[in-house]
Design brief:
The complex is a heterodimer. Chain A is mostly helical. Chain A has one domain: Formate dehydrogenase/DMSO reductase fold, CATH 1.20.1630. Chain A is 69% helix and 0% strand. Chain A contains 16 helices and no strands. The N terminus and C terminus of chain A are likely disordered. Chain B has five helices and four strands; from the N terminus they run E-H-E-H-H-H-E-H-E. Chain B has two domains: 96 residues, 2-Layer Sandwich (Alpha-Beta Plaits); 66 residues, no CATH class. Chain B has a four-stranded antiparallel sheet, with helices on one face. Classes of the chains: A mainly alpha, B alpha+beta. At the A-B interface, helix 1, helix 5, helix 6, helix 7 and helix 15 of A face strand 2, helix 2, helix 3 and helix 4 of B.
Chain lengths: 463, 178
């Protein structure tokens, strides 16, 4: 058997680490007391979460009449946030599953936190349709269980029901994928902790992991299977989300481009969120040797390619509206670009198509502050994309007498703020209590310090 | 039966791989190896068969897809037939998305639970950690001494030749039932 020689590539992690160093560096933030910066971030996020909880409490108690919706615009802020958060989650699965299948070993630096991000984002997403049902306490009616109402089953022909299954499956499979990936690292934390509550909790959570090669062998098989399952799953989830719109007859929604367009947009926004979090985390948690500018560079390239697909989709939509000869379709697109919501449209185009073009330059990709700012713009742009798709398609419908406008109410804005609070609070707690980088995977993938003298690889190749 | 076992500890994955191959070549019994990460090629070096968990995944996935297809058909066209937009009651295309999700869900959970079952991983299990550093930076190879051809001194020397940092002989009952 010949080993794959990776000496031609630059090392995945810098600083000439040994295996023990990797464990120590990644576990270090869990042993230290939280820094002032962490407490500041936590205070802000937790306050936002409290605001959100209060808003959700109020709107469930009062009803969704507290929103700015009207008869014409029946879907707006709430569904925008839902699609936005589901999209954020998709980059996590892309990095953990798709890049795993493509043997992209640099993913090991970011996959753990990207998967955590997926979980938290899908949790945030789930809140919105639950509230939108109006009678949130009857949400379990969405599940097909034998009931005393007939039994009246759910409507399996409705894309909204497909969504229930897609999002629940996505949440569960993401959670399992994340947990299975965590098992060896939980055992690492268990073995390096002093006897105490943390050691006890970790021993329970790691299910008695002992590092046996037989277990590793099966574990690798299952990890591969989960990656193979999560890959089509992530595409199906946003495809089904897009079908919530594409199967309607509303001009601007009723198009076949929606599934690929939504999937690309989702991954685009998710990568932006991963970059935002990673650039902060590597600094705050002292992980500069593990999340290197090279990782950022690769994610920027992915983000740029996704941004170009999204830009191409915007152009295709416009072209198809023109080429279809359908006056309603043409009106919707002219209305998007020049109508009352044109600011939202041009914000979207600027943030998603124009600004990411800066990433063609290696110098921009190498500058972390620049990448951070671009990622923030993409986050904003992708939120506006969903807003544009949903609101501009609805607010001027077939009957001019029912045209209306839409502006979010304070309650809706507070709910969005609250969802960010939930996301960042969860992420900050995760950073404190679990290893943010997959220790075992980094050890397996990185070209670590070898025993001296190094193997004579050069002569072999010359011969 | 209390077989004696020999534990060899290594610092580098390459040493463990080479030592495992050497041990297998000499026809000695490898009980297990303990590593901090999945060492690639170790399964072949130890002569492990490809895992059959893929079949569990396949069967669970098929069960999920077919079971859900049947359920969707039964609810929508047999138990309480509903006309939705004039579509046929048993419209197959609209059944596909949910059937796919069910397949993924069952296949994923099925293979993970099968892994837990065959590898005997469960909450509250007391791990038999051969060396607390195997989850950090040490690699341990466990060789069984039951074989008649076993010469402890020679094997010990073989391990040291492969840069073992430590060798130790023990009774296997201390290691659990591997």
């Amino acid at each position: 058997m010949t080993d794959v020689d990776t000496s031609l590539r630059p090392p995945l992690i810098t600083g000439d680490k040994s295996l023990g160093d990797v464990t120590r560096d990644i576990c270090a933030p869990m042993d230290r007391r939280p820094t002032g910066l962490w407490w500041a971030a936590f205070a802000v996020s937790f306050t936002a979460l409290i605001v959100g909880v209060a808003a959700v409490w109020y709107q469930i108690a009062t009803g969704i009449g507290t929103w700015g919706l009207n008869k014409t615009v029946g879907w707006a802020f709430d569904i925008t946030n839902f699609v936005f958060w589901v999209g954020i989650g998709h980059a996590g699965t892309l990095i953990s599953a798709v890049l795993f299948l493509f043997r992209q070993r640099w993913r090991t630096a970011v996959n753990r936190s990207a998967e955590a991000m997926t979980l938290f984002a899908v949790m945030c997403a789930g809140i919105f349709p639950l509230i939108h049902m109006g009678r949130t306490w009857l949400a379990f009616w969405m599940l097909p269980y034998p009931n005393m109402r007939g039994p009246l089953w759910v409507n399996f022909k409705s894309p909204l029901l497909w969504d229930v299954f897609a999002i629940s499956t996505y949440l569960l499979i993401s959670a399992v994928f994340w947990y299975v990936g965590l098992l060896p690292d939980l055992a690492t934390v268990r073995d390096r902790s002093q006897p105490g509550w943390r050691k006890r909790i970790m021993s329970i959570l790691c299910l008695g992991w002992d590092g046996s090669a037989r277990t590793w062998h099966r574990y690798e098989t299952v990890y591969m299977l989960l990656a193979g399952l999560a890959t089509p799953l992530v595409f199906s989830v946003h495809t089904i989300v897009s079908m919530d719109f594409a199967t309607a007859v509303i001009p601007g929604w009723h198009t076949t481009i929606f599934p690929p367009y939504f999937v690309a947009g989702a991954i685009f926004s998710g990568l932006a969120m991963v970059l935002t979090l990673m650039i902060i985390a590597r600094k705050v948690m002292n992980l500069q040797d593990y999340i290197t500018p090279k990782h950022v560079d690769r994610m920027c390239k992915l983000m740029l390619s996704m941004g170009c697909i999204v830009g191409f989709a915007y152009a295709t939509e416009f072209f198809m509206a023109f080429y279809s000869g359908n006056p309603y379709e043409q009106f919707v697109f002219m209305n998007r670009a020049l109508g009352p919501f044109c600011i939202a449209y041009w914000t979207m185009v600027t943030c998603n198509v124009v600004i990411p073009q800066l990433l063609w330059s290696p110098r921009v990709r190498a500058s972390l502050p620049a990448v951070f700012v671009i990622a923030i713009f993409v986050n904003i742009g992708m939120w506006f994309e969903r807003f544009v798709i949903i609101v501009t398609s609805l607010h001027r419908d077939f009957l001019p007498s029912s045209w209306a406008s839409y502006f979010p109410s304070t309650i809706e804005i507070a709910t969005l703020v609250g969802s960010f609070g939930l996301f960042f609070t969860s992420f900050l707690i995760f950073c404190r209590i679990l290893p943010v980088i997959a220790i075992a995977e980094v050890k397996g993938a990185a070209h670590l310090k070898k025993r001296e003298p190094a193997e004579p690889a050069v002569e072999e190749r010359a011969a | 039966m209390s077989d004696r076992i020999l534990l060899a500890t290594f610092e580098h994955e390459d040493d463990l791989l080479a030592a495992t191959r050497a041990v297998r070549q000499r026809g000695l019994k490898i009980i297990d190896a303990f590593t901090p990460f999945a060492v690639h090629g170790l399964d072949r070096a130890m002569g492990l068969r490809p895992s059959r968990l893929t079949w569990v995944c396949f069967v669970c996935g098929m069960f999920g897809a077919l079971g859900m297809l049947w359920f969707e058909n039964w609810t929508a066209s047999v138990d309480w037939a509903i006309d939705v937009g004039g579509k046929p009651w048993n419209s197959l295309p609209s059944d596909v998305p949910v059937a796919f999700e069910a397949a993924v869900l069952l296949a994923g959970f099925g293979s993970v639970f099968a892994l837990f079952l065959v590898s005997r991983l469960f909450p509250g299990k007391r791990a038999h950690v051969v060396n607390p550093r195997v989850t950090d930076d040490r690699f341990v190879l466990v060789i069984g001494e039951s074989n008649a051809a076993f010469d402890a001194a020679a094997v010990r020397q073989l391990m040291l030749d492969h840069h073992a940092v430590e060798t130790e002989e023990k009774l296997s009952s201390e290691e659990g039932d591997t």
